[in-house]
Amino acid sequence: MENIALIESFSEFKDDKLIDRVTLMAILEDVFRNALKKKYGEDDNFDIIVNPDKGDLEIWRNRIVVADGEVEDSNREISLTQARKIEPDFEVGEDVSEEVKLVDLGRRAILALRQNLISKIHEHDNTNIYKQFKDLEGEIYTAEVHHIRHRAIILLDDEGNEIVLPKDRQIPSDFFRKGENVRGIIESVELKGNKPTIIMSRTAPGFLEKLFEQEIPEVFDGLITIKKVVRVPGEKAKVAVDSYDDRIDPVGACVGMKGSRIHSIVRELGNENIDVINFTNNEQLFITRALSPAKITSIKMNEEAKTAEVMLKPEEVSKAIGRGGHNIRLAGQLTGYEIDVYREGVEEDVELKEFTDEIEDWVIAEFSKIGLDTAKAVLEQDVNDLVRRTDLEEETIKNVMAVLRSEFEE
């Protein structure tokens, strides 16, 4: 049978691509019907019998016997003389089923048919991969480094699926070699053309949340709820946790003795400093906890404008702001309040933006980046420390301080 030689690879498609028998039969029938339409103009009078397991296929064309010389549609009708060559006892008006050999379609049609089959199988594959990973969005996934590019790392999982870890989704301290396993969350899955693009992230707050679920049994079991996560990837994170069981200390359970439980998470995130905070609906108390390790003297809140003025002792200010301003910025993101820090006992201070006539805007912006928005906040700092924490030259900082001092000397 010449059909077998042409389609002997059908069963291989089934094995290699892990397509179930019913799906493969549907794809094969669709491909062959398209070929028949091109050859005969229509396909609804053809029966296709596919057996992908055995690797054989039969195509039968059904026509009606008409008297010689009365054939109007050669696809649907057959003359009595031609019909009797198939079976000698056919009569006018009877139905004739005749097998169509694949070679009858022509060599070019057969090549196109096979290419169409491969394309349909790949399309089915890609649709399945898309659905599989769409269901995994927001979940932790592990894959191996296959190729390192300037703007992204290309990963492969155990099934050979390609996953992209862009540079901006990597923690700044991340450094991976080919063959290493990488963990992250599946951030997004998109179909570009017929090919799915799978994006992994290690910087998303959701990655930290899922690590808590993986590493801390009480979170996994639902005894502890993660209310919110905010991060500066690789630098600092704040995680608000709560428990509906008064017998459980959510912070203690997450951190563990001497940080034993959270240690593996910190290590995975490139030694990211993680503050675990008890959630509360008392917004004033929540802000106080969010600004930890600073100790707050008092808070003046505007709930409508979502602003909070926090009063601290001078020695607590740098703790509240944190290195690079990360602590106060994350506290604001966690609580939803814009937080301003004021020093206790300081009656007079001037905001830096009041000095725009003498200090350039970009210089003021550099101080704001590290949480210094007032004149006295800058004057309390060490010049060398400011050189290290900002992109400003020592001379520029000294000039700024001279301008600020003159304000108070007057």
From TrEMBL:
Question: What CDD domains is this protein classified in?
Answer: KH-II_NusA_rpt1, KH-II_NusA_rpt2
What the entry lists under SUPFAM superfamilies is as follows: Nucleic acid-binding proteins, Prokaryotic type KH domain (KH-domain type II), Transcription factor NusA, N-terminal domain
Q: Which residues form the K Homology domain?
A: 233-306, 307-384
Highest taxon of source: Bacteria
PROSITE patterns per record:
KH_TYPE_1 (PS50084)
Example of a GO MF term: DNA-binding transcription factor activity
Q: Where does this chain mainly localize?
A: cytoplasm
Show the SMART domains listed in the entry. Answer: KH
Job description of the protein: Participates in both transcription termination and antitermination.
Tell me the protein family, please. Belongs to the NusA family.
The subunit field of the Swiss-Prot or TrEMBL record says: Monomer. Binds directly to the core enzyme of the DNA-dependent RNA polymerase and to nascent RNA.
Q: Which NCBIfam families match?
A: NusA
Q: What is this protein called?
A: Transcription termination/antitermination protein NusA
Q: Which organism is it from?
A: Christiangramia sediminis
